[in-house]
Structures are given as structure tokens and as C-alpha cells.
Amino acid sequence: MTIQSVVVEQPTLGFEAEKKIKLIDIEADKLVASGEFTVPDENAFGRSFRDYENANNERHRLVEELYHQQHVHQTFEFVKKTREEYGKLEKGEMSIWECCEVLNDIVDDSDPDLDEPQIMHLLRTAEAIRKDYPNEDWLHLTALIHDLGKILIHPNFGGLPQWAVVGDTYPVGCGFSETIVHHKQHFRENPDYKNPEYNTKFGVYSEGCGLNNVMMTWGHDDYMYLVAKENGTTLPSAGLFIIRYHSFYPLHKGEAYRYLMNDEDRENLKWLNIFNKYDLYSKSKVPINVEEVKPYYQSLIEKYFPAKLKW
């Protein structure tokens, strides 16, 4: 593994429409799981999932402060500059599995449901999907890699603050939806909040423009999408959509911003909705034998990715 240490300037990818990736030829709304995924009643802390209102625990206070920083600092200009910087993919070279192992040192401070290394969450999600959808190997691999963009927190990748890496994502360059977590508390401190170019319903976008033409808050989702796409992955369009928008809870839970979607987005959203329950509700303490499942996922990595990727 070769990782180049780089000093990252705080927050320019030109934001233009990107080429379409092949569509998967299976209709998600007609696909039935082969098993029964049971949604647990409690998260790893014994509380309800995605509970952002429990102010009496330290984990909640940590999460709320992260969103405070995110809502203040994630502006249109910040995202544009940061996306351009990281879109160069000059931080180093390593394989997908090497990146999984690096994530052993990273805990997501935005997640109220889990406080352990990311690789266990990735494998639990992938294994749960694999059990219910055994024939969709691209979906198993998508689950394994969907959070690898959190490598941005690592010091050798610039050590970005967690508010610039994790947390729910949402569009910048248009008005902030009330479905965004902690919407009422902090957005007034964001410079875009009072900017007439960015604070209307559509902002700099147009109805049905397609999410591919919308800038999202910068973080691990969009970074991993860029890494996969620019390294020539053969994952289907739905896989890349899941990677890029799996934290876009205002859309797939709050049903906000749907007026920006096009037909391809709506098809891919069906797959994201399938994926989401596994991503969210597999956050438990069920152990996974890494060495036992590693050969299977290594075979998928070889099928859909080059041996080494630029990051």
C-alpha cells in the first residue's frame, strides 16, 4: 500500500454532468428477498435507531456538535473547492481491501447507533444483504465499500474534520429542507442561508435536472463515488447511486428534493431503498469472522475493480 501524505487546503471540480454508467437490467421493485431480514428493536446502545433527540447522553452531544459544524461550514463554495481537490485522486494508491483494513482505526462520530470500527459495519451490512439477495453480487460488494470514503478522516488523506466526511448529506446551492437533521438549530449561521442565489427552492438548479447535476455536501459518499468511477469500476449505475447517496436521508427518508430527480434517479432510488434498511439496521454487535468471508469479497473486488486504485 502506498499512501502519500498531503496537506489539504480547506476547500475546484468543475461541476458538469458526468457520463452515464450502464443501468442494471433487473427491476428492483420486482425483486423479492430470498430471506427475511428482521429489523431489530434497538441499536448497539440499546436505544432507538437514528435518535437525534436524546440530549441526556454523551453520544448525542457529540453527534449534535458535528451537525452544528457541518451546517455552518458546508457551503456551495466549500463543496466546489473540496470536490475539485479530492477529485484529482492524488492522495495515494491501494486496493479496496487495504482500504477496508485502514478503516479499522476510524469511528464515525455522526452515527448515534454505533461506536466501533467501520469494517465491522461494512461486513455486517454486506453479509445481511448477501443472505437475502444471494444472486446480486454487485450489491454485496457495494455494501462492503459504501463507506470506504471515510478514509478522508485518516491523517494521510488530509485528516479532514468529521463534519466534512460523515453525517447525513443534502444539496448545497438551493434551500435547506426542514427534513435535514437538526435543521432548526444552525443553518442561520451558514453564509448560503441568506444568499438569494442559493436559498430558494431550486437555487442554481432546475426541476428534473437530475441528481448528477446537483452538488451535495462534501463527504465520504461523493468521494467514494469519484474513486470508484474514475478508477473504472464495472459496478452498475445502481451501485454507484447507492454509494453516492446512501447518506442522503432527506431524500430517501424525508422525501425531500424529489423535484430535482430525473427518471434514472427514480429507478436507482428503488435499489437504494432496498440497501438502506440493511445499512441502518445491521448496526448491532453480531460478530463477523473476517478471515472466513474475506475470500468471497476479494473475488468480487477482482471482478468489479482494478487491483490498485488511485485515491
UniProtKB/TrEMBL annotation:
Cofactor note: Binds 2 iron ions per subunit.
Residues given in the record as Fe cation 1 binding sites: 121, 146-147, 246, 279
Catalytic activity: myo-inositol + O2 = D-glucuronate + H2O + H(+)
Positions bound to Fe cation 2: 220
Single GO term (MF): inositol oxygenase activity
Enzyme kind, highest EC tier: oxidoreductase
GO BP terms in the entry: inositol catabolic process; L-ascorbic acid biosynthetic process
Assigned GO CC terms: cytoplasm
Locations listed in the record: Cytoplasm
SUPFAM superfamilies: HD-domain/PDEase-like
Residues reported to bind substrate: 50, 108-110, 150, 167-168, 246-247
Pathway field: Polyol metabolism; myo-inositol degradation into D-glucuronate; D-glucuronate from myo-inositol: step 1/1
Known EC number: 1.13.99.1
UniProtKB keywords: Ascorbate biosynthesis, Cytoplasm, Iron, Metal-binding, Oxidoreductase
Source organism superkingdom: Eukaryota
The keyword Cytoplasm is annotated on this UniProt entry: yes
Needed co-factor(s): Fe cation
Pfam families, alphabetized: MIOX
Family listed: Belongs to the myo-inositol oxygenase family.
PANTHER family attached to this UniProt entry: INOSITOL OXYGENASE 1, MYOINOSITOL OXYGENASE
Entry protein name: Inositol oxygenase
Organism taxonomic ancestry: Eukaryota, Viridiplantae, Streptophyta, Embryophyta, Tracheophyta
